[in-house]
Amino acid sequence: MSFIQMKDVYKRYKMGETTIVANDGIDFQVNKGEFVVIVGPSGAGKSTVLNILGGMDTADEGQVLVDHVDIAQFTKKELTGYRRNDVGFVFQFYNLVPNLTAKENVELASQISPRALDAVEVLKDVGLGERLGNFPAQLSGGEQQRVAIARALAKQPKLLLCDEPTGALDYNTGKQVLKLLQDTCRETGTTVIVITHNSAIAPMADRVIEINNAKVRKMSENPNPVSVE
Ligand code: ADP
Ligand code: ADP
């Protein structure tokens, strides 16, 4: 039984006279604990899929089953609870609060979710035990992304959604961040979904979903994903 299932999801944006179809009948499913890459060119509709899965946007039509519940039927209030308690988000540009330290940024999770883990422990887990008191500006891009991942993981989300998490990083730093995401998936059983326009990431995934021009063009399972080193 799938952990996530998008069934015939449509999303359109009205821009004056024209309508942009961002998702044109999206269908796919994901099993629990998988490391999933959604790949496709810019403008393909990937962020729209991620925003709908994360409860940040709503589908016009279709079903969005997460852990057997159709979040497309959620009220605004239910969707807020879902975003806070069930989903972790990681963004391209980290979205850290600049005037809070690494530790304080991760502690924000405990203001959002009652079951948040201890910030220091999670920062140690992502290799930043020595950086607790540093502000974002005092950290490298890769370290800032680790703080952002720690903040997302502190909530113990069912689902970790990552929007171009390596998009602002150089090749080696990006690889380290991907390794952290892959290891997290393996060690905690968290379902991790990464969207990217970089198809080089695809071989690391358990499942690859290719989106182009608002539709899923291909979905493949990878029995032997490459372990990031
Ligand atoms: P991707 O993440 O693959 O780059 P997006 O899902 O961001 O693609 O966008 C798909 C299409 O929908 C694009 O044409 C984009 O410009 C449009 N789009 C996305 N979000 C909005 C929005 N909030 N308002 C209007 N158009 C949007
Ligand atoms: P990505 O780099 O992940 O493809 P985008 O640059 O497409 O992301 O989108 C970044 C944010 O801007 C998203 O939240 C998306 O919904 C929004 N967005 C994208 N295209 C448009 C648009 N044409 N009009 C308004 N908002 C948009």
UniProtKB/TrEMBL annotation:
Residues 4-229 form the ABC transporter domain. SMART domains: AAA. It comes from the Bacteria. Pfam families: ABC_tran (PF00005). The lineage of its organism: Bacteria, Bacillati, Bacillota, Bacilli, Lactobacillales. CDD domains: ABC_MJ0796_LolCDE_FtsE. GO terms for biological process: amino acid transport. Belongs to the ABC transporter superfamily. The keyword DNA-binding does not apply. GO terms for molecular function: ATP binding; ATP hydrolysis activity; transmembrane transporter activity. Keywords: Amino-acid transport, ATP-binding, Nucleotide-binding, Transport. Coiled coil: none annotated. This is Putative ABC transport system ATP-binding protein. GO terms for cellular component: membrane protein complex. The keyword Nucleotide-binding applies.
